[in-house]
UniProtKB/TrEMBL annotation:
Domain of life: Bacteria
UniProt entry tagged with the keyword Thylakoid: no
Matching InterPro entries: MASE1 (IPR007895)
Protein's organism: Streptomyces endophyticus
Name recorded for this polypeptide: MASE1 domain-containing protein
Transmembrane portions of the chain: 42-66, 112-134, 146-168, 188-207, 219-247
Keyword annotations of the record: Cell membrane, Membrane, Transmembrane, Transmembrane helix
Location of this chain's protein in the cell: Cell membrane
């Protein structure tokens, strides 16, 4: 019963994410695609958090999204199957390499990018586009551009949405760098400054007539270095959403561009932003964890040397007894 409720909750979240994603839809060779498809991120995060048992919720959510757009047919069933199989494949691949949901290592970030995102989403893109070619609703020559747009959109959903949802599930939006259990005031001040900078800089970079999208990257680097996964992915998601809106409206850097040019430029920016935020934050988190481990080991060694220099038994001072010598 509990798993069924979780599956229904996943279906509702999937459907809501799908409706939000469709707000930025564009047409490529007459087929509706989205630069960022958030439901794939919801699906992968749900499987990582709740397990394989919620897969019916993914299938139901995908079916509901499709029925909101068109009358379901055989191709819709294939698309639903692909949208369900791709996140499941992502879960199996990530489990096979020992992925940690906290993305605390560089290998976790690269695994999510290349296995969970770019690799597994090949299934959903192929299942979504190939049936349209088989039924004749899409010309064979148009398969590649539509497939590529579909694949990148699904992968961006994993790279941008999944890490953010995993952070929210952990409830650690602001990383702690202290031992007292409280977040210092200076951390809140810096977080506020980062938020103000994002609100001011990102819209300017996105909507300015000359292409200023590169101005987003110093902001992403600052967020990754100081606030790790939570800060970097939040900034990346904010920048990608605004950029997608500008592309949909044909404003700023996307003024007077064709649909193919808009999709190419938008996907290049979204991919670069997601990779920068995800991989850099994972690298920073791993290096800090290594430094803390080394520092802890050095402190223990220094304490041991102090006890030895004082002629004390270090095992007694730590509440442990030294092992007795075996009887001969």
């Amino acid at each position: 019963m509990e798993m069924a409720l979780k599956a229904l909750a996943v279906a509702a979240c999937y459907y809501a994410a799908g409706r939000l994603g469709l707000l930025g839809r564009v047409g490529v060779e007459g087929v509706v695609v989205t630069p960022i498809w958030p439901p794939t991120g919801v699906a992968v995060a749900a499987l990582l958090v709740f397990g394989v048992g919620v897969w019916p919720g993914i299938a139901l959510g995908s079916f509901l999204v499709i029925t909101s757009l068109t009358t379901p047919d055989l191709t819709s069933i294939v698309t639903v199957a692909g949208n369900t199989a791709a996140p499941l494949c992502a879960l199996l691949l990530l489990r096979a390499v020992g992925f940690r949901p906290d993305v605390s290592r560089l290998r976790d970030g690269t695994s999510l990018v290349f296995l969970g995102g770019l690799g597994a989403m090949l299934i959903s893109a192929t299942a979504g586009v190939a049936p349209q070619v088989w039924t004749g609703s899409l010309a064979t020559g148009d398969f590649l551009p539509v497939w590529l747009a579909w694949w990148v959109g699904d992968a961006m959903g994993v790279l941008l949405v999944t890490p953010m949802l995993l952070v929210l599930c952990r409830g650690t939006l602001l990383p702690r760098r202290h031992t007292a259990g409280r977040i210092p005031v200076r951390r809140w001040v810096e977080a506020g400054c980062l938020g103000i900078a994002a609100v001011l800089l990102v819209p300017y970079a996105v909507f300015s007539s000359p292409s200023m999208l590169f101005l987003n990257f110093p902001l992403l680097i600052w967020a990754a270095l100081r606030f790790e996964l939570a800060g970097s992915m939040l900034c990346a998601l904010f920048a990608s959403v605004l950029t997608t809106f500008a592309a949909h409206e044909g404003r700023g850097s996307f003024l007077d561009l064709s649909n193919i040019e808009v999709m190419t430029k938008l996907q290049a920016f979204n991919g670069a932003a997601a990779l920068t935020a995800l991989l850099l934050s994972a690298l920073v988190t791993e290096q800090r964890a290594t430094r803390h481990s080394v520092q802890h080991a050095c402190n223990e060694l220094a304490e041991l040397l102090e006890h030895l220099a004082a002629g004390e038994d270090p095992t007694e001072s730590s509440g442990r007894r030294a092992p007795e010598a075996p009887d001969e």
